[in-house]
Amino acid sequence: MADTIASFWGPVTSTTECCENNYAHSSYIAEFYNTISNIPCILLALLGLINALRQRFEKRFTVLHLSNMALAIGSMLYHATLQHVQQQSDETPMVWEMLLYLYILYSPDWHYRTTMPIFLFLYGVVFAVFHSFFRFGIGFKAHYVILCLLCIPRTYKYYIYTEDLSAKRIAKLYVATLVLGTLCWLGDRFFCKEISTWPINPQGHALWHFFMGFNSYFANTFLMFCRAQQRGWKPKIVRLMGVLPYVKIEKLKRK
Questions:
Q1: What percent of the chain shows pLDDT beyond 70?
Q2: Which one in 23, 35, 165, 250 has a CA-CA gap of 20 to 30 Å to 126?
Q3: Residue 91 known to bind ligand
Q4: How many whole angstroms separate alpha carbon 43 and alpha carbon 49?
Q5: Is residue 144 part of a domain?
Q6: What is the pLDDT of residue 114?
Q7: pLDDT confidence of residue 253
Q8: Is the model's pLDDT at 136 over the cut of 60?
Q9: Is 209 annotated as a binding residue?
Q10: How far apart are the C-alpha atoms of 167 and 20, rounded to whole Å?
Q11: Does a structural domain hold residue 221?
């Protein structure tokens, strides 16, 4: 939305703006709430990363948590500046993150171990190069939705084959946060004109960031549980300070 005070970063060059007044709180931050709302995602990803490293999960989960953090930081840069280059630092990691999820979901049953990571890596590199030259607009959103849809069949398979009720609850929290976040995104995107007349802006896009931070954490936790089951590590869901769930494993000691 239109600037309310002088901007540090200059004219808006990004292809997308959200339903929040630009530079309303600081000349250095274009969309204040959309920027700070990424902080929970960074903190949750950091907790997940610490758990993955401490219990020596496979490196794929270390990279996954780092990608969540990179995406949140890129999103902060984008919403703080509303510049095209920083927009790419938000959108390109979104695709890379989904490629990681595809690898984690499908690699256990993939017979040719090297072909999938090589293909997904090259796919991510090619996308990043093309995305740096072309503004895809609606094409980017359609591409991202397709990648998300590709994850659904295997995620559902993991869910129905998981007997642990605590793990199933985390999967349900994943779905709930996804639905709530999507509704907030849609409201902010398509009803901005109406929202602008309200006394208080609910900051739908900021709520999208908030819910998706928890969504990513729940997704990672559920996938870590399923992978630990596959490896025979006797996983169980425990709660940090009785609130935040995480996976605890018991690896068999080598004799």
A1: 96
A2: 35
A3: no
A4: 10
A5: yes
A6: 84
A7: 64
A8: yes
A9: yes
A10: 37
A11: yes
Q: Is 205 annotated as a binding residue?
A: yes
Greatest Cα-to-Cα distance within the chain, rounded to the nearest angstrom = 69
The count of C-alpha atoms lying within 13 angstroms of the C-alpha of 139, restricted to the half-sphere facing its C-beta, is 6
Q: What is the CATH number of the domain that holds 235?
A: 1.20.1070
The pLDDT assigned to 2 comes to: 54
Domain membership of residue 96 as a residue range: 32-250
If you write DSSP's letter for every residue of 38-73 in order, what string do you get?
A: THHHHHHHHHHHHHHHHTT--HHHHHHHHHHHHHHH
Question: Does 19 fall in a domain?
Answer: no
| pLDDT single digits (tens) 242-251 | 999 999 998 7
Is the model's pLDDT at 111 over the cut of 80?
A: no
Domains in the chain: how many in total? 1
Any domain includes 255: no
Grade residue 83 by pLDDT with cuts at 50, 70 and 90: very high
Q: Is 79 known as a binding-site position? A: yes
Residue 200: its pLDDT value, please? 95
The reply to whether 220 sits in an annotated binding site is no
